[in-house]
TrEMBL record, chains A, B:
Keywords: Membrane, Transmembrane, Transmembrane helix. It comes from the Bacteria. It is a multi-pass membrane protein. It is found in: Membrane. The keyword Transmembrane applies. It holds the Pfam family AA_permease_2. Residues 652-675 are annotated as: Disordered. This is APC family permease. It comes from Occultella gossypii. The keyword Metal-binding does not apply. PANTHER family: POTASSIUM TRANSPORTER KIMA. Its main location: membrane. The chain crosses the membrane at residues 65-84, 121-142, 148-166, 178-203, 223-243, 264-283, 329-355, 376-396, 402-423, 447-465, 471-489.
Length: 675, 675
């Protein structure tokens, strides 16, 4: 019942407001930066934590290596940035890695990238919101131990905001992102000065010793230790997600689009790298401890931590130490970090339906996800994304450490295939270019992409090896499933298209010999009379009025009314021994078709149209069922003759109601696509 | 999405089996008795318990009055039986109290009876199944403390069995009901002999003292005590439910129908009364204690009962005492009691949808509940009843004592109004009868009904006064709600009928001046060509093929294909600035209507029909949405031109599939209605 769900949706997401279409306001760099930054920068809120947490398994001494792990992540990050600067120049259309891989490596590669990205969008939401709810618990102790339910509530809230279609504005992103940057900048500056002047305090957790887990008695020495460092690096590589977002958003930039996008990308990379190193550096300097389970791994003088000890995120711990004498700054840094995490989740709510729409256009996902201007298409995407993210949060109890094991596999699949596609792109272009300068530039680009490919492939291998059994297999399984579903859908559409293809134009254009019109009469009232008039207006070869005697008394009454209305046409009464409306009509239609198989039967069904959902519950069900059955009978056309009751004027789907022009609303993510 | 729910239903309730229609096998008395007995007799499983439980509040001494309370219930029961013997003679059509009240007292009274009966059907299910799960716990200790969830599971099971449409047979009822009667008979006989010979043991609970609650220190003396006796009587009156069932089932009896029904009714009353008195008598003789909370109310030598003490139902306690040396009989009595309670619940699953169907026919409930031959109608009723009963069981935690407070209000409303209607019935008939003998019989009948009315009205007043604050208000509230909903629905149907009535036959028969045919083209494939052929076959005044340029490339492709197919008709491309399919078509249709308001526009929509539910998810949505919008535009006919894809042959709703002929299955309860 689409109408009931319409009504429910109305209650949940409110009456759609008619708003002017978003103008083609292209983004200057100062606005584009915050629009695309939240996803990439927000990972600084959990990536350092995961590095420290993973290293902590080998005991306190292993923390000394954390800056080097951070540095490795930064190197990969800057390499990826350099690679994507080539992509945005070569593919300014905003197709991103899916387009690059499909164009250069074929549809299977494109589909692999698409599956990977879709799964990663879900994980972006799950990880960001879970992390955000932990930040919330840092400033709001009442939220502790309720992180999962809070995270689920936040996902639902973000989904609802996106379903309502709040008008997105580039400047709306600017404030929280710049606030976050400013807060982090002040923290870096104040912390740096304190460190230089020797006045930097130590974190509350610095008093604890970190106990090595069994198997890591030798610290980071040996095979297990080396593996652990690689795992720490893999987790830290979560800082790279979101870098690819700009490559999907080139059309949204002001001209020269590609150049501005490339510059913004570089800026983003530098800011992200700086932030990451700042957090890791300050964590070292203040002696922050961050472990999986404080009660098992932390100790003071051989005693475990006190019962009520709660471990805050690393940025929270640093802010508490640096701004020990000035709590407002602590709250500002923590709150803006939480906020940017939610913005990052919101990014996925823009990216997921957009990619789904592209995949739908290419025939890999149901058509309903396609139509760009249709909000419903995006609504479906939003709901699917929210449900998937909620499921993950629920299963993993909003634990960032466990969710992060599933994360970034997808992003690195996209990175690797995207860069491989770029290499092929340059290889194909090079032979046709003769100008030495242009060739030099292309070769430079190719070299960058080749290095990017090599490095991201290496990281992908490291991520797969170190995380596979920890949860990456789940992500890979989901990607495989999605891939299979998309291939299946594509095949189905192809199969249907083949079946519907016209082989013989002449046969397809052959006219039926005669037209038999049947008018279904359930009562003698205005809708029936209208159906009869309309049927007569089409001048069929034969015209019959039929009624089904489901109830003997009722059929008798219809016959009497028919005579009273003086209709110049006999009424045929079909017997219904089983008191069923549908079958006698079906049998009758089939008997006509049997006699003259080349004729056409047009069944006129009078319907009256009501306005409220509850009225729809009270009416018209038998006509609907009959129609759905008749669809399966060849050679039959069903003509619905509607009669609009007075109440239909206030219908939810009344096209005259300006509030109903759903197509007018800007779809989420439009601002990023430059539409 | 009706197809998805179809698929889900298929999984739950199985593929409908084609079965021959139930023959007109009318019931002889020996079969009719068990068919109608389960509801009326099963109450002996909880009515004595509730009498003892209520009396126990005033301490052990009050148990001495229990036979007198039982006797009062028996008197009312026999009065009601005598009254209904008049009803079945006067109204052999099986309409029951609803018909009697509607015919004699007007539709409002009829509606009151109907609301009351519907609410009581729900309570029959809730009380019987709750009681049944307590009997189960008596023989199956593992079930203890899980009574509510077991009861909910049993309701779901009974509902499922009814949804699957197990072929009902009168003889199917005979075995368990006669088994129950036999078990109770043997228990009465053996217990009676033991009592007469002084060898009757005492119940396990007889060792306990029953402590009076505060306020009842004087026992049953005083106002509070008197009120308590009335309350005990009200609860015991639950034994009367089900007596009215025969009045709805007269057509199922063999001829002479009325006489046989009256005889069966008398038999039923006598057996019920005997059973009730037997149970109460044996409970007295064996010293059974039955209280609300054994841990608060029972004591032995001033000490409370042991921790693990569990209180069994009265029949269970008696069977344990009488058959102390022979456990199989104890199990048989308990198990057959549990079984008959489930049969009683099943009765409501027959009665509720039948009454709903009658109310629907009279325009008080949605039409979908009407069509008798259509299983779907009964399915809806079954599901509604099951959900309502489950809700009650859940809210009241399957506690019979609390549920019984809501019970029987409805039945006594029906009794009272039914008898009042009967008095009026005789009053209206009397003046036209002259034969002295006939007049005498009528006057005798009227006297019986008058006495029945007076007594049931008195009992209704007692029930209302003693139970109102204990929960009867909930039942009354539900009846009021149901009454209001039914009045509302009736008004709505009336309103629509008025709106659709033909005032001016000539105007209604006026033909539209011209017919404009539009064929919607989304792609150039077989379905489109078929739609075009069919449209041409109807020889419209004008014919246009239109396509909406939702996507520029796609529209260009359609135009090229159109030219390639050499269709001798230009293709009109409608612009869609908002990439929306629906609005351009609507605007175009409206523009035609504006130019020539008396013309008719027929929109031919090619549709292809698929077989699997998942295929339906992948196709056709935009056409559906367009159709639902066009319905609201006056002067438009929507002609669906279906193209059956190969997969449609295995569709769920394929009319050629013999398994699908839903109308063939006997509906639940048919055996009771003599259909």
């Amino acid at each position: 019942m689409p109408d009931l769900s319409d009504a429910a949706k109305r209650i949940l997401v409110g009456r759609p407001v008619r708003s002017e279409r978003l103008g083609h306001t292209l983004l200057p760099k100062r606005i584009a930066l915050p629009v695309f930054a939240s996803d990439a920068l927000s990972s600084v809120a959990y990536a350092p934590d995961e590095i420290l947490l993973t290293l902590s398994l080998a005991g306190l001494a292993s923390y000394t290596i954390s800056p080097w792990v951070g540095l490795a992540v930064v190197i990969v990050m800057l390499t990826v940035v350099a690679s994507y600067r080539q992509t945005v120049r070569a593919y300014p259309s905003g197709g991103g890695d899916y387009e690059v891989a499909t164009t250069n490596l074929g549809p299977r590669a494109g589909l692999t990238v698409a599956s990977a990205l879709q799964v990663d969008y879900v994980l972006t939401v799950a990880v960001s919101v879970s992390s955000g709810s932990h930040y919330l618990a840092t400033v709001l102790p009442a939220a502790r131990d309720h992180e999962a339910i809070i995270a689920i509530g936040l996902v639902a809230l973000i989904a609802l905001i996106n379903l309502r279609g709040v008008r997105e504005s580039g400047t709306g992103f600017a404030f929280p992102v710049y606030l976050f940057m400013a807060g982090m900048g002040v923290m870096a500056l104040v912390g740096g000065i304190q460190w230089a002047t020797g006045t930097l305090g130590i974190a509350e957790s610095a008093q604890f010793d970190v106990l090595a887990e069994p198997g890591y008695e030798e610290g980071l020495m040996g095979l297990a230790g080396g593996f652990l460092v690689l795992r720490a690096f893999s987790s830290g590589a979560a800082a790279l997600t979101g870098v690819e977002a700009i490559s999907n958003g080139v059309p949204a930039f002001r001209k020269p689009k590609s150049k501005n996008a490339a510059t913004t990308l570089l800026l983003l990379g530098l800011i992200g790298a700086t932030m990451l190193m700042t957090v890791i550096g300050l964590a070292r300097a203040t002696g922050v401890r961050f472990v999986q389970d404080p009660h098992l791994q932390l100790a003071m003088n051989g005693q475990p931590v006190p019962e009520g000890y709660e471990q805050d995120p690393v940025i929270g711990q640093i802010a508490q130490t640096v701004f020990a004498g000035f709590p407002p700054m602590f709250y500002l840094v923590t709150a803006s970090t939480g906020l940017i995490l939610l913005l990052a989740a919101n990014t996925a709510f823009n990216g997921f339906p957009t990619l789904a729409s592209i995949l739908s256009k290419d025939g890999y996902l149901p058509r309903q996800l396609y139509t760009r201007g249709d909000r419903l298409a995006f609504s479906n995407g939003i709901i699917i994304l929210a449900l998937a993210a909620i499921a993950l949060i629920w299963v993993f109890d909003a634990e960032v450490t466990r969710l992060i094991q599933l994360y970034i596999v997808g992003v690195f699949v996209a990175f690797t295939l995207g860069q491989l596609g770029m290499i092929k792109h340059w290889n194909e272009r090079l032979p046709s270019v003769v100008a030495a300068r242009e060739r030099g530039a292309m070769k430079r680009s190719r070299a960058i992409n080749a290095f990017g490919f090599a490095l991201t492939a290496l990281v992908l291998a490291v991520v797969l090896i170190t995380k596979f059994t920890h949860g990456a297999w789940i992500a890979i399984g989901l990607m495989g499933l999605l891939f299979a579903v998309m291939v299946f859908i594509h095949r189905h559409y192809q199969h249907v298209a083949d079946e519907l293809e016209i082989e013989d134009v002449a046969a397809a254009r052959a006219l039926p010999s005669r037209v038999h019109a049947l008018v279904l009469v359930s009562k003698v009232h205005k809708p029936t009379m209208r159906a009869l008039s309309y049927a007569r207006a089409t001048r069929p070869s034969t015209l019959q009025a039929i009624t089904v005697a489901v109830d003997r008394d009722a059929a008798e009454q219809v016959r009497r009314d028919w005579d009273a209305a003086e209709v110049p046409l006999p009424l045929t009464v079909l017997d219904s021994p089983y008191r069923d409306l549908t079958r006698p009509v079906l049998e009758y239609v089939k008997s006509i078709r049997r006699e003259s198989p080349r004729d056409l039967v047009v069944v006129y069904v009078p319907e009256y149209v009501v306005g409220h959902w509850w009225e729809r519950v009270l009416h018209n069900q038998s006509a609907l069922r009959l129609k759905s059955r008749l669809l399966y009978t060849p050679g039959v056309v069903m003509a619905s003759v509607p009669w609009q009751l007075a109440s239909s004027a206030r219908s939810l789907v009344n096209p005259d109601d300006p509030g109903e022009r759903l197509g007018d609303l800007p779809a989420p993510g439009m601002v990023r696509r430059g539409e």
